[in-house]
Amino acid sequence: MLHCPIVKRLVVAVDGPSGAGKGTVARAVARALGYRHIDTGAMYRAVAWRALHTGVALDATSEMAAVAARAGFDLGDGVIAIDGHDVTSAIRTPDMDKAAALVARNAAVRDVLVARQRALGAEGGVVMEGRDIGTVVFPQAELKIYLDASQEERARRRAADPAHTSSRTSDVAHVAQDLAARDKSDSTRSVAPLAQAADAVYIDTTGVPVDDVVARVLALVHEKAGAA
Ligand code: DC
């Protein structure tokens, strides 16, 4: 007789500020587990990009929600497309940082994207990264991680990130300034601000090699999956 161990496929929520290492860690954890990696920040960015390219004003509340509701997302491994447009690198510029932060303040857009994110994670087997995954999108997630790092280290990482395409991104002082402004916008907005869920595991990644952070998260996943 065949013995098929039933391994529970969890929802792993990864939240934290910009440059904390969410993308790198979430992608590596998903790959190691054979889970799907969902970058929810890319969804806010892609909606902002789509609006800018179809002439919808970023502050037009209901029109923006309609853009988010109509959008066809392709969130493949490392590739982000919206309505057939590959926007993988176009959404990682300082202008798009600002546009996405503005769109993320729109409660109507959030309602639409949160519903879509819940649908994407409904079956489990996902590592979903963002700002409100453990608090709003999946408050019942089996494992919640809150990644953080010092402001200096986050700015350094962002400046060195080749995915962020701009001449300004090599200037750490400018990057630090932009990052601080965006952190403030993300953590003080009235809807779903960046916050650590009470039951999240806090990991400070300052000076910690990525592999160590990934190993720690994988150990937590195995602990939770074993207990489920
Ligand atoms: O993670 P990121 O920098 O790509 O996110 C882009 C913007 O969207 C940023 O301002 C934070 C915001 N965001 C959010 O409000 N909620 C999420 N779940 C993910 C991102």
Q: Your description of this structure?
A:
By secondary structure, the protein is an alpha/beta fold. It has a single domain (11-222), classed as P-loop containing nucleotide triphosphate hydrolases (Rossmann fold). The chain is 49% helix and 15% strand. The protein has nine helices and eight strands. It has helices spanning 22-33, 40-54, 61-70, 94-103, 107-121, 133-137, 151-160, 172-188, 210-227, and strands spanning 11-15, 36-39, 73-76, 79-82, 85-86, 126-130, 143-148, 201-204. Helix 1 packs across helix 9 and helix 3 (61-70) packs parallel to helix 5 (107-121). The radius of gyration is 17 Å and the shape is globular. The chain starts with 10 loop residues before the first strand and ends with a helix. The model has no long low-confidence stretch (mean pLDDT 92). 2'-deoxycytidine-5'-monophosphate (DC) binds at residues 18, 40-42, 44-45, 100-101, 104, 130-132, 182, 186.
Can you give me a brief rundown of this structure?
The protein is of the alpha/beta class and 228 residues long. The chain has one domain (11-222): P-loop containing nucleotide triphosphate hydrolases (Rossmann fold, 3-Layer(aba) Sandwich), CATH 3.40.50. The chain has nine helices and eight strands.
Comma- or semicolon-separated keywords:
228 residues, binds 2'-deoxycytidine-5'-monophosphate, Rossmann fold
